[in-house]
Amino acid sequence: MNRPYTLVNVAMSADGKLDSVARKGTTISSTLDKARVDRLRASMDAVLVGGRTLLDEDPKLTVKSKALREERLANGLEENPVKVGIVSQADLKLAGNFLTVGPARRLVYTTQRTTPDQIARLENAGAQVFVLGEEQVDISAVLESLYDLGIRKLMVEGGGSLIAEFFRLNLVDELTIYIAPFIFGGGSAPTLADGPGFLREQAPRLRLGAADEFDDDGGVFIHYMVIRKE
Predict the structure, then answer these.
(1) CB 21 within 8 Å of CB 13
(2) 51 neighbors 108 (Cβ within 8 angstroms)
(3) How does pLDDT run along the chain (230 residues), one tens digit per residue?
(4) Which residues is 177 bridged to in the sheet?
(5) I need a labelling partner for 187 at 20 to 30 A (CA). Which of 12, 74, 119, 138 fits?
């Protein structure tokens, strides 16, 4: 299968939570980590998020640094990477950040649960919409589609259920994690990999690439390479 090289990037609490139980996109990254993520995002062809992140947090997914945006333009790239949303029912805010902030291509992958009227509204708002599945979006088909559209480097930013599916399908090449020095707790708070989970013998395996402490708040950055299953 032709697909983009895929990196998963997350910020999480020391107990592995991507958000608090409020699930409203609580800030976790430190100032230094936010700058790291901006550089990483600027190096990508596309940035992808799943439905709950898309609908609840309405992320911008743009490069914040003017210098990094200008560098992309100087290299013949668009100012921001392509924004990609995967959502079973694409009831997006038409005036929201995903659809309106920054110059960027916007791709929405959805299912037959999204009505023709919803699709038309999204397309009128400037998004390209692809229907890939009846009830659940076919993730492998999404990556093939992105490759066909010229995407070679993809960053996945959440949420936990989507990341778990990427790992289950053996579609992750790298994992970068910022671990903040605090505890969220809560059984309903999202984790790095939600869903049904993996048994020990099925668990994705990782090889440590780097680890470093960030001086601004005592958080830890970890870079893993994923040991791909044959």
Answers:
(1) no
(2) no
(3) 899 999 999 999 999 999 999 888 889 999 999 999 999 999 999 999 999 899 989 999 999 999 999 999 999 999 999 999 999 999 999 999 999 999 999 999 999 999 999 999 999 999 999 999 999 999 999 999 999 999 999 999 989 999 999 999 999 999 999 999 999 999 999 999 998 999 999 999 999 999 999 988 899 999 999 998 76
(4) 10, 222
(5) 138
Cα separation, 21 vs 36, whole angstroms: 26
Tokens standing for residue 109: 């992958």
**Residues 178, 220 contacting (CB under 8 angstroms):** yes
Helices (H), the chain: 31-42, 51-52, 66-74, 97-100, 116-124, 139-148, 160-168
The answer to whether 153 touches 44, Cβ cutoff 8 Å, is: yes
Q: Angle, nearest 10°, between helix axes 31-42 and 66-74?
A: 20
Counting Cβ atoms within 10 Å, is residue 86 exposed (0-12), middle (13-18) or buried (19+)? buried
Q: In 3-state terms, what secondary structure has residue 110?
A: strand
Residue type, 13: S
The total of structural domains in the chain comes to 1
Coil, strand or helix at 193? coil
Could you give the residue ranges of the DSSP H alpha helices within 149-193? 160-168
Q: What is the CATH number of the domain that holds 143?
A: 3.40.430.10
What pTM was computed for the model? 0.95
Q: Are 57 and 92 in contact (CB under 8 A)?
A: no
Judge contact between 3 and 171, C-beta under 8 A: yes
Which 3 state secondary structure label does DSSP give 11?
strand
